[in-house]
Design brief:
mainly alpha; 7 helices; 3 strands; 65% helix
Length: 255
């Protein structure tokens, strides 16, 4: 069992670091690779886009987190990054449907969200059991003692490492200007985040919602389905545009 120094204030400290780190990475990626993509999206969605995003993310975060924590042994209100992501997606997609906007508009948020999870989960880890995101007891040699003298799965580190790997792959994709990273990176992020977190949820002592699944399992399935369906739609749309090549008529022939 590996003892870990913990402090409740660590969560806030790392959360602040996550916000600043995510903002800095967003600016850097915008200047490096995403200028044209972000400007094209901004021209389509208008200022109401960010209002919809916030109005979806905040209640989504608190609703999902509280639906989980209020069913625990010590009920309390809480918030969840998965709930914030799902709430923001729902609100933004409704807004886009009303305005007739199609295609991905979340590319600029991929780096910031991924890095935010990487740093934020470190805060959850060093906050100890007070944070409520700790893992189940384990006999694995890497089990950690978060202050309660119980060897637990470091699920926070699992998630942080998984999203760090995705972020690394995404940055390589941007460096190579791969189409999936440049145009459909947000959908890839939803799939990656949903898949990895779905598995880690089995290692947490959260109350079950349906069979062996908790509320976050359900949200993760929704994220993966959303990412896969919308990625497929975007690729089909791109192929349709590429096939729609105009055929020169008689007036276009050189004389």
């Amino acid at each position: 069992m590996i003892p870990v120094p913990t402090a409740p204030w660590a969560h806030v400290a790392f959360e602040i670091a996550a916000w600043f780190g995510g903002l800095s990475l967003t600016v850097a990626l915008y200047r490096w690779r995403l200028t044209d993509v972000a400007q094209a999206s901004a021209g389509k969605v208008g200022g109401g886009y960010f209002v919809a995003l916030v109005l979806g993310a905040i209640p989504g975060a608190w609703l999902a987190g509280s639906l989980n924590s209020l069913r625990q042994a010590s009920p309390s209100l809480s918030h969840s990054v998965a709930g914030a992501l799902v709430g923001a997606i729902i609100a933004v997609e409704i807004y886009k449907a009303i305005r007739g906007v199609r295609g991905s508009t979340g590319g600029v948020f991929v780096g910031s969200f991924s890095l935010g999870v990487v740093i934020g989960r470190l805060g959850c880890f060093f906050a100890g059991t007070a944070d409520g995101t700790y893992g189940l007891p384990t006999r694995m040699p890497w089990g950690v003692d978060l202050g309660d003298h119980v060897a637990r799965h470091p699920v926070q580190l699992y998630e942080s490492a998984a999203m760090a790997m995705f972020l690394a792959v995404y940055l390589v994709g941007l460096q190579r200007q791969a189409d999936w990273a440049m145009r459909r990176g947000f959908y890839a992020m939803c799939i990656a985040y949903g898949v990895q977190r779905f598995f880690w949820e089995f290692l947490k002592p959260y109350p079950k919602l349906i069979g062996p699944f908790n509320i976050f399992h359900v949200l993760c399935v929704g994220l993966v389905a959303y990412g896969w369906i919308y990625d497929r739609r975007e690729r089909d749309h791109q192929r349709a545009q590429e096939r729609a090549v105009p055929v020169p008529g008689p007036d276009n022939q050189p004389v």
